[in-house]
Amino acid sequence: MVDTKTIRRRDFLAGIAGVTGMAAFGLPFVPKLAVAATPAIEAASEGAAIARVGIYPALGISRVGGSQKWFYAPELPGVPANPEGGFKDGSSLIKKQVQRFRVFAFDAEGRVIKELTAADAKIEWRVHVANTKAAWYGFVNAHDNGANAPGMPTRMRNQYFASNEQREKMLVIDPGAVTISGTEVNWSGEDEAYAMKGRFWDSVDVGLGQVRTDADGRLLVVPADGISRSPRGTAITNFADNDGWHDDWCDGPVDAKVTLPDGQVLDADGAWIACVGPDFAPEIPSISTLYDVIENMNWEQKWVEPPATPLSFRQHIYPTFRRLALMEWVSAASNLRQGWLDVGDFSSEAYLAQLADPSEANKAFRQKVFSAFRDPYNMGPNAYKEEHFKIPLMPGDGVDHNGSPLQWFQFPKLQYERLRLWAEGAFDNDFADAALDQVTDLDQLPVEQRPHALTEAALEPCSGGAFHPGVELSYYLRLPALYARAADPEAEAFRIARGNRASLVQNVGRILDFTNATTGEDAPIGPQMAGDLTRWMGLPWQPDAFSCQRVAMQTDFPVPVWWPALLPVDVLPEEHYNQLMRTDLSAEQRVKFFENRVWWARGVPGIGYHANASYWDGIRNMIAVWQQMGFVVQRPGPTDPDRPEAIPQQLFVEVGRGSMEQRFDWVADDGDMG
């Protein structure tokens, strides 16, 4: 069951005010469509012959959910998914996010001709996903940070299975390749021929999702249900590494064979799918995204052109400021930012208008704002103190190494470089683009922008750090050896390199460190096979989702948080929202409800009189209660004549939260009890 409502922005600009091009209201909550300028691709001339075909997005993201209802992953950069009826199905079950893949045709010069559908060609899809987490190595920290935050060697998970043969039989969940062709094949999801199922512990069947096609023959990768379990009932003992457990995340290659009407057969440039956990604040992007991370790697390798000036404020700058403003809805440290950093209110329309002003007279203001961002080039011995109270207040890859300059979150250098150019005034204020504001569907973009727009839209909602190990995927995505371009200068940016090992089990010795992760034949961070991307993540995934919330330190204010844009920390609950909307309450009372935020993970460690409820209770319980967690989504603020000025016109509210009671099926009529 799919929410077929067109994915579109909740709000468009009501009007353009003054020379700044700012909206009359609602900033910075308006998602603004903007498509990356690189890699630059041109449109082919009319009648051009098809010489090559490729699958997009190059790396797609599906998200697990326990409901059989689902919605499409974002397909327009800057425009979040907006499933009809919300992100739950009405029974506390989370809807699945389904990645849709398309085939585009190119001429001999690499120019885009068109998307190919079932009306133009026969498309035979092939998908091979696997889950190899239990057969991989444990996680302590990222291995690629050098002397500033040395990677710590890790041992194999489930090392009591000593032989590779045992490990493959007992620990690898491998459904094998599944093929599909045609239109609306398995649309109901009931045909077992298209299910992706494997076995764990040689005794338990594990579903990793299924494939379908839509009315145009495009591929849909439907993820699994988010189930984690231990066949032997093994205890949870770690946030990331738990022997005897499996979950149903997976990843692997996506291929297509395309037969044209003239009989010509072409193998498409392959893509990759990763099926990962839910995004619990889907309208709030991370301060740095996975797209930013991979784009930065391409820039550092000179695989894409450096930033051309003047920059686009709408495309290159506004997204960062908008993300900062929206972080206030999921993190107390961000909401109270003015208490620890002398910087303005990114939620203010007037402030954002000044940010968009490229004039020389405004340069001192821009430079002051720029100085509030953490400098990724400062690697000095006192950087951990000098860069502490900078944007954003989030831990970094080097949190395990006290005094490391990487103790705090680091921006990808390309993102920081664009901010530097913005501060210099090397940008155009192109925020107002009435034509682009009307785009609600991929097919409304120029044809040459559509292929890469799909990749950007897929990766933009994903976390770009810190990688400890991360939310969806991890640090290896910033290393060039992982990509096809490392070996083939003609390969497209963002495409994952393909491996050809004899087995999905990969044994590099007793321990895994940076050296054996990146060197030798079939290095783990190199050409990939099914299961290779997700194997680095927490096993199972739920304990790490609970583990990475706040980080208590010596100073009580402000408190750093990990990944609030996907796993919120401090939220405005629906109960408070309902009260602040009441017109019979005084303005003072309504503001109290607005200002009082609560912990998103409240109740996960336990409810009632739990004097010993703890971190360990939380990481264990999250496996059972993850679908009870609320989603932070946009809701309208009060509009009555007595609306308190302190309450904005648009709010982000935690909705859909269920009960944390696990002992029985509690309903409100049962009353509260310990």
TrEMBL record:
Residues 56-275 form the L-Lysine epsilon oxidase N-terminal domain. Keywords: Membrane, Oxidoreductase, Transmembrane, Transmembrane helix. Its EC number is 1.4.3.20. CDD domains: LodA_like_1. InterPro entries: LodA-like (IPR033798), LodA_C (IPR041173), LodA_N (IPR041168), TAT_signal (IPR006311). It comes from the Bacteria. One of its GO terms (molecular function) is L-lysine 6-oxidase activity. Pfam families: LodA_C (PF18417), LodA_N (PF17990). The chain crosses the membrane at residues 12-30. Residues 404-556 form the L-lysine epsilon oxidase C-terminal domain. It is an enzyme of class 1 (oxidoreductase). This is L-lysine 6-oxidase.
